[in-house]
Design goal:
Blueprint lengths: L5 H6 L6 E6 L5 E7 L2 H10 L5 H9 L2 E6 L3 H15 L15 E4 L7 E4 L8 E3 L5 H14 L11 H5 L7 H4 L13 H15 L4 H16 L3 H15 L15 E8 L3 E10 L2 E11 L6 H15 L6 E3 L11 E3 L4 H28 L1 H15 L8 E10 L2 E11 L2 E2 L5 E4 L8 H18 L7 E5 L2 H13 L7 E6 L4 E4 L2 E5 L6 H35 L6 H11 L2 H6 L2 H8 L1 H11 L4
Parallel strand pairs: 7-10, 10-11, 12-16, 16-17
Antiparallel strand pairs: 1-2, 1-3, 4-5, 4-6, 7-8, 8-9, 12-13, 13-14, 13-15, 17-18, 18-19
Length: 598
C-alpha cells in the first residue's frame, strides 16, 4: 500500500485515546507511544522545534504513522507497555525492562490468600487487573482487609493438618486481622463467602464498601479527628477513580485473533487484533475494494485468510462479530457478553476509525472518489432513483408575520454552490403562514428554472414537517414536476425525514454522512434566510425613522448613517454637526423634526 504524506496522515488522526507507532521508510518500527488525544499528541512532534537531538532525529526518520484506538488513557498505557516489550523499538527507552504492572491474586487454596503480584502463574489462581498504580492496589487490599480479615501465612491448611493440630494461631489472630483458619476457628464455607464478597470489590462492585468508608469519614470528622477523616477521604477518591477492568489485557483470553468489519458501497475494512497471553500485541486494518456486491460475511472471510497469512498467525481460535465457516482447523467464537465481547467491540471501533480516516484522506487527495462514494451513499440511504448531484433546500423566516422572506440554498456534489443561492420576498401571503409561503417560493423557483431552461435539481429538501412538505408537493404538481424531482421534508426536533404520501418518517443514523449533508443544507438555508430577514428588518427600521421625514431622501439617510453610525446618534446630534454632513438646509429639517417641542 502506498504510504500517504505525513501531513495528510496527521490531519486525519482521531481525537481519541490510543497508541501510536512511528515507522521509517523501510517499514521498521521506530517508536511506540501512548496518547490521551492521538491527534494532538502526534501533531506536537511536528509542530515544534525539538532541543533534544534524539527526538529531532526520530522526527526526521518518520515516514509512516499507525495507531490503535482504545477506550481510555489507562488502556493506552497498558497497550503501550505490551507493544514496547514485544517489539523493542529503537527509540523507546522507558518500559523496555521486564517490569510488569501489578495484579491482585486470589490464590488457589483451601483458605485463599489475597495479595499483590507482578507474576501471573498458571496454577488455577484468579488474577484481577492489571493496575497502573500500586497505590490503587494497596488501597483495595487495605479496604479488603478492613472488611474481611484474611490469613497472610503461607501454610498448607489442608483439613488433615488442621485436625492434627499442627498449627497455632499467631499474633495476627490476636490483633483481629485473621479469623484463625489454622485452628479451624472459621469454616472453609464461611471463609469462601468472604472471598466471594472480595471478588465483587476487585471487579469494581464496591458500592457498599464506599458507603461504609463515607460513614467512617463522617464519624471521624464529627469527632474532630480530621487527619483520620482526610486519610479515609483519600482512599475514597482513589477507589472512585479506579477502573475495575481493562479491555486491553485479560489473562483469561489467551492467544486469540480478533476480527471485525465495517463497509460501505465500495469498500470493506477488516480490523485485526492479535492477543498473546491475554495482551494485544498487534493491530492492523485491511482495506478491500468490492468488485461485485459482496456481503460483509464474504469480505470478512477473505480478510481473515489474507491477514492470517500475512502475519503468519497460528492461533487456533478467533473472535468475530457474526458466524463464519472457516474450515475445521479454526475455532470461531461469536462473543455475546463480558471481556470477549468488549474486545470485538474494540476491534470494530478501530475499523470505524480507519474508515473515517480513509474518507478524510480521500477527500484531500482524491476528491472525485469521495464525491462519487458520498453520492452513491445518499442515493441508497434516501431511496432515490438517481444520485442527488444537485440539491436545493428551502427555509422560511418571519417574526410574527413581519417581513416574511424565504431562502433557497444549492449544493452541488455535496458542497455549497453559493453563486446559485436565492432569496425571496413573500408576495402573495399575508401573515405568518409557513405552508403558503413554502408553496409560493417553490412554485416561483422552479417556474423560473423552467422558463429559463435551466437544469433542475435531483432532490428538493424543505425545512419542516408534513405541512411544509405538502405545500412543496402542491407547487410541483402545479408545474407538472411531481414525480420528476424527489422532494423530502426534515423536521428539526428528531431529525425526521418525511416523504410525500408516507406518514411514517425515515430516521437515519445520527453519524451517517447522508444526514450530515442534509443537516448542513438545512442549517445553511436557515443562516442565509435569517441574514436576509434581519437585513430587511433593519432596512424597514431605518425607513421608519429617517426616510419618512419630508424632504429627506435615501442618499441623505445613507450619508447620515455612514457618519453617525446609528439613528439614535443622528437624533442627538446638534444642527451644526448635521450641517457638516448634509448641508444646512437638510440639517435644519432633521433637527427641527426631532426637537419640535423645544
Amino acid at each position: 500500500m502506498k504510504i500517504l504524506d505525513l501531513e495528510i496522515q496527521l490531519k486525519t488522526l482521531p481525537n481519541s485515546p490510543g497508541v501510536y507507532q512511528y515507522y521509517d521508510k523501510k517499514g521498521k518500527l521506530l517508536y511506540v507511544g501512548k496518547a490521551k488525544n492521538l491527534k494532538k499528541r502526534v501533531s506536537s512532534y511536528f509542530n515544534k522545534k525539538h532541543d533534544n537531538a534524539r527526538t529531532h532525529l526520530l522526527v526526521k526518520k518518520i515516514a509512516n504513522i499507525k495507531h490503535i484506538v482504545v477506550n481510555s488513557e489507562t488502556d493506552a498505557l497498558l497497550l503501550e507497555n505490551n507493544m514496547i516489550k514485544n517489539y523493542q523499538p529503537r527509540y523507546n527507552v522507558m518500559l523496555k525492562d521486564d517490569k510488569s504492572y501489578p495484579w491482585i491474586c486470589i490464590k488457589n487454596e483451601r483458605f485463599p490468600r489475597v495479595f499483590p503480584t507482578r507474576r501471573l502463574l498458571k496454577d488455577g489462581s484468579e488474577y484481577y487487573g492489571p493496575y497502573t498504580s500500586m497505590k490503587t492496589v494497596h488501597t483495595l487490599l487495605d479496604l479488603i482487609k478492613g472488611l474481611y480479615p484474611l490469613r497472610t501465612c503461607n501454610y498448607d491448611l489442608s483439613k488433615e493438618k488442621i485436625e492434627s493440630g499442627k498449627y497455632k494461631v499467631c499474633l495476627e489472630y490476636h490483633l483481629g486481622n485473621c479469623l484463625g483458619p489454622c485452628e479451624d476457628k472459621i469454616s472453609a464455607e464461611r471463609y469462601h463467602d468472604n472471598i466471594d464478597a472480595i471478588r465483587d470489590i476487585v471487579k469494581g462492585n464496591f458500592k457498599d464498601s464506599l458507603h461504609r468508608f463515607r460513614s467512617q469519614m463522617k464519624a471521624h470528622a464529627e469527632a474532630m479527628e480530621f487527619e483520620d477523616a482526610q486519610r479515609i477521604k483519600e482512599k475514597i477518591d482513589v477507589l472512585e477513580g479506579y477502573q475495575a477492568k481493562s479491555t486491553v489485557v485479560n489473562p483469561l483470553i489467551n492467544n486469540v485473533d480478533v476480527f471485525s468489519i465495517v463497509s460501505d458501497e465500495g469498500y470493506g475494512y477488516v480490523n485485526f487484533l492479535q492477543l498473546s497471553h491475554g495482551a494485544i500485541i498487534r493491530s492492523h486494518t485491511l482495506e478491500l475494494k468490492k468488485k461485485l456486491d459482496e456481503s460483509d460475511e464474504e469480505l470478512l472471510a477473505i480478510g481473515i485468510i489474507e491477514i492470517r497469512q500475512r502475519f503468519n498467525s497460528q492461533s487456533s481460535e478467533i473472535y468475530v462479530p457474526f458466524k463464519l465457516d472457516l474450515g475445521d482447523g479454526i475455532r470461531v467464537t461469536v462473543p455475546k457478553l463480558g471481556d470477549k465481547k468488549r474486545i470485538v467491540e474494540l476491534s470494530e471501533r478501530n475499523a470505524k476509525y480507519f474508515r473515517m480516516e480513509r474518507f478524510k484522506q480521500t477527500k484531500i487527495i482524491d476528491p472525485d472518489r469521495h464525491v462519487n462514494r458520498l453520492m452513491a451513499q445518499m442515493k441508497s440511504d434516501l431511496r432515490l432513483s438517481v444520485e442527488p448531484r444537485h440539491i436545493e433546500c428551502f427555509d422560511n423566516s418571519n417574526i410574527q408575520g413581519t417581513n416574511p422572506v424565504a431562502a433557497c440554498v444549492v449544493f452541488k456534489d455535496g458542497k455549497p454552490s453559493k453563486k446559485d443561492y436565492r432569496k425571496f420576498n413573500i408576495k402573495t401571503v399575508t401573515g405568518p403562514d409557513d405552508f403558503a409561503s413554502m408553496e409560493e417560493v417553490v412554485f416561483r423557483r422552479y417556474r423560473r428554472l423552467l422558463n429559463e431552461d435551466e437544469p433542475l435539481p435531483q432532490l428538493i429538501i424543505v425545512d419542516g414537517g408534513k405541512g411544509q412538505l405538502s405545500s412543496g408537493v402542491k407547487a410541483l404538481e402545479a408545474l407538472g414536476l411531481r414525480g420528476k424531482i424527489a422532494i423530502i421534508g426534515i423536521a428539526k426536533r428528531l431529525e425526521e425525514l418525511f416523504y410525500p404520501g408516507d406518514s411514517i418518517p425515515l430516521y437515519l443514523d445520527k453519524k451517517s454522512e447522508t444526514l450530515k449533508v442534509i443537516q448542513q443544507l438545512r442549517n445553511e438555508a436557515h443562516r442565509f434566510g435569517i441574514t436576509f430577514h434581519r437585513n430587511k428588518r433593519s432596512s424597514a427600521a431605518i425607513t421608519t425613522e429617517l426616510e419618512t421625514i419630508s424632504g429627506i431622501g435615501e442618499k441623505t439617510v445613507v450619508d447620515l448613517l455612514r457618519h453617525f453610525r446609528s439613528v439614535s446618534k443622528v437624533k442627538a446630534a446638534k444642527e451644526e454637526a448635521l450641517a457638516e454632513v448634509i448641508g444646512p438646509a437638510k440639517a435644519k429639517i432633521i433637527y427641527t423634526h426631532y426637537h419640535q417641542e423645544e
